[in-house]
Structure prediction request, 115 residues.
Amino acid sequence: MHKQFTVTSDHDASFPDPIAFKAGDDVVLTDRTDLWDGHRWVWARAADGREGWIPDDITEVRDGRAIARKDYSAAELTCRAGETLTGLWATHGWIWCRNGAGETGWVPTRNLEPR
Prediction:
């Protein structure tokens, strides 16, 4: 993707220790779901016990177990209006961004404007 964005409204990271896992890891899915900007999210628990929202398509069920299809981190990026970010990956109404200091994390698409 590697596209430049201007932050249109501030965003503060929600979780201090977000869920993260690697492709192939077991992930426990709960019955808790949420629709956020038209996208379905599922509350999940990683093997290390951390919990959080994950995109509904990031796991697949094999032999009754939910397995991560790719590496994922729910880390959000705190950013301020006017800041320039580089978007690296987009899914489910969020864009994985990198700021000028090299920090990365998710920012809601609705808080960004393409440059």
Observations:
- DSSP finds no helices and twelve strands in the chain.
